[in-house]
Amino acid sequence: MTAKACFADGSGAAVTAGAPTMATTATIGRLDLTESDGQVRSVRHILPHPDRDLVLARLADEVPGAPAVPLGTTAPADGDTLIAAGYGRTADTWLPTKLHTGEFKVTAVGAGTFGITATSNATICKGDAGGPILRQSGSGYQLVGVHHRSWQGGCLEETSTRRDAVETRIDDIASWVADNAKLPNALQVDVTDTRIGVRKGDYGTQVREGALTATTWTNLVANAKDIVVAANRIGVLTHSGDAYVKEGAVNATFVRVRSDVTKLVLSEKRIGVITSDRVAWVKEGGLSAGWVNEYSGVLDLAITDTRIGVIAGLGWPKVKNGSLSAAWTSPFGTGSGYQHIVMSGDRVGYITGEGHASVDEGAVAWDSNGATKAKQFTLVDSGAKKLVLKDDRIGVLTESGVALVKEGAATNAFVTEYTGVRDLAISGSRVGVVTVDGAALVKHGGLSAGWSTVW
After folding, report:
1. Which positions ≥6 away from 194 have C-beta within 8 Å?
2. What is the pLDDT along the chain (455 residues), one digit of tens a residue?
3. CATH fourth-level superfamily of 81-180
């Protein structure tokens, strides 16, 4: 929630619902903008309030672990002391990098706004627009408004001495917020040729089997961070780091295979995890098989029944072929700076930090002379958010929410499957997407088959 001014394009035109006119990101949980903590998300959709300087901004992805401040449900009263926050200019700094706060007294309450004045040298300056003003409630806070207009007394290069401002009220529009900020139906989808797994907006998980017309869902695990379906296995990773896997029927009993997990990957015969200390572990065989420490200091992990791949250190891909104790090889020509790795069959795919997606096809025993070097193909030069490989299909989800899929040769052209996409999954005969609005859709057959809304 922020101010309409944050999305003005400079033309004077009214801010309207839909995608922002300019690419916009939201940074959550970063109190010092020179640091790298917190999380950054693209803004995919905005909805302005019809009568107030207020916008709801829908993020492209969830922000797990970020606490949300509750909305105040009673109006501020004259004389109340509130706390304003922002990153706007100060008396001596044009572009501050650290969050700053100040106390203000409420001076008047109107139909959609309320006035405030500083209790000391605090002030609301340019760059603070859309920031929060909070009321202390017990040991926490409530959001009672956002910054609307200020006289900017005491701000750098301003001559005004008035340190009062006007805030947009939010306590009396709870129904508008509730109607327009509902949990999405789905956050994630995964598919095989016969199964569909969905992670719901409330972090619950479910799976169903059979044709797209099947309607019976089997509920799985709550508080889920990820759902994985592969062959006859189903896996769920919770936000608390517990990895659960079942094999066989969809109603089989889950086994908690590992705790303290940050990533879970499955194949028909293998299970792989990354633990919080960045160690990649893999087991082969049944769910109770022993774990093998495959690599330390990893950023990402991928497995098939015959291969293991990691992104290690500063972004170096490492791949092994054969047993869990096989030797690692560094793909010739890939270099560093990679963040993600995926595998299927004889293909290994990568995404760099700049969103460059590529795939190697062939043997993994690369050498500097290229004698056994895999063929390398660029898929997307930049803007790749997710890369998926399955059988002879390659899928790419772009940062702008476009789902691209190709089948057959890696040089074949991509087909634009859907736009406005949050998540993408593929199998040999299915494509699944979750839209930004939270609908899970799946198609079965060719890339031009029709979509079915499954959740």
Report:
1. 209, 210
2. 999 989 988 888 999 999 899 989 999 999 999 999 999 999 989 999 999 999 999 998 888 888 889 999 999 999 999 999 999 999 999 999 999 999 999 999 999 999 999 998 899 999 999 999 999 999 999 999 999 999 999 999 999 999 999 999 999 998 999 999 888 999 999 999 999 999 999 999 999 999 999 989 999 999 999 999 999 999 999 999 999 999 999 999 999 999 999 999 999 999 999 999 999 999 999 999 999 999 999 999 999 999 999 999 989 999 999 999 999 988 766 678 999 999 999 999 999 999 999 999 988 765 555 445 678 899 999 999 999 999 999 999 999 899 999 999 999 999 999 999 999 999 999 999 999 889 999 999 999 999 999 99
3. Trypsin-like serine proteases (2.40.10.10)
- List 152's β-bridge partners, or say none: none
With a CB cutoff of 8 Å and minimum separation 6, the contacts of 81 are 103, 104, 105, 106, 119
- Residue by residue, what is the 3-state secondary structure of 50-115? CCCCCEEEEECCCCCCCCCCCECCCCCCCCCEEEEEECCCCCCCCCCCECEEEEEEEEEECCCEEE
From-to residues of CATH 2.40.10.10 in the chain = 81-180
Q: Which CB contacts under 8 angstroms, 24+ apart, belong to 402-406?
A: 403/431, 403/433, 404/380, 405/431, 405/447, 406/447
| CATH number listed for the domain at residues 186-453 | 2.130.10.30
Report which of 347, 210, 324 is spatially closest to residue 269, judged by C-alpha positions.
324
> End-to-end alpha-carbon separation of the chain, Å?
27
